[in-house]
Amino acid sequence: MPRFGGPSLQHIPDGTEADATMRRIPMTAATALMLGGCSLVGPRCSDCVPPKSYSSYYQSFSDKLVTKGTAEGCAARDLKEFYGKECATSKHFADGFTQAYVDVALGKLAVVPAVPPSKYWNAYYRSCEGAPAVHDWFAGYEAGLQTSSERGVSQFNRVVSSWSDGSGSDGATCGP
C-alpha cells in the first residue's frame, strides 16, 4: 500500500502523462513554498501582492499555498503596523486576525463565523477563565476582516474576465 494513501509511483508507467504529473507535484509544492508571498521572516511583501507565477498553467494546490502564505505574511505585517508594540495584542487576537486574512484571500464570505476554531471548544475555553481568549479571537477576526478588505486581500481569489475592469469591483482599475 502506498504511503499516505495516495497513488504509488510504482503503479504508474514511466513516460505517461500521469507519471509526469505525479513527479511534478512535489516540485510545484516546493516552488510554491519558496515563493510563498510575504514571509513572516523578513520583509518580502511591500504591498500585499502574491508573487508572480511563472507556470504556464493553473495549479490549484500550489495557488492555494501561495495565497495562504501571502495572506498570513500580510496579516502579520499589518498586525504589527496597526497595533505595534504600544498596543500589544493577545495571541488569540492575532490568530483571529490572521485567519480572517486567509479566509478572505481564499474567497470565503467576509463574515465573522458563528463558532470559533475547534481548539477553542475544549472545557477551558468554555469556562469563565478561558472565555476572554475566545472573545479576543472573535475581535481579531472582525478586525482582520475590515483590514483585509481595505488592503485588497479579497482580490487574491478573483480572475479577471472580459466583463471586468481588472479590479474585481465596479470601480477603479488596478495600477496607474
Structural description of this entry:
The model is unreliable at 1-12, 18-46 and 170-176 (pLDDT under 50). Helices cover 46% and strands 0% of the residues. Helix 1 (17-34) runs parallel beside helix 2, helix 2 crosses helix 3 and helix 3 packs across helix 5 (131-150). The chain has one domain. It has helices at residues 17-34, 60-83, 91-105, 123-126, 131-150. The chain contains 5 helices and no strands. The chain starts with 16 loop residues before the first helix and ends in a 26-residue tail after the last helix. With 176 residues, the chain is mainly α.
Question: What is the topological layout?
Answer:
Layout: H1 17-34, H2 60-83, H3 91-105, H4 123-126, H5 131-150
Helix pairs in contact: 1-2, 2-3, 3-5
Between the first and last Cα atoms, what is the distance in angstroms? Answer: 55 Å
Biggest sheet descriptor: none
Number of strands: 0
Tally of discrete structural domains: 1
Average residue-wise pLDDT: 73
List the total number of helices: 5
Low-confidence stretches: 1-12, 18-46, 170-176
Q: Write down the overall geometry.
A: elongated
Beta-strand content bin: under 5%
Rg (CA only): 20 Å
State the secondary-structure class.
mainly alpha
- Measured as a percent range, the helix fraction is 40-55%
SSE order: HHHHH
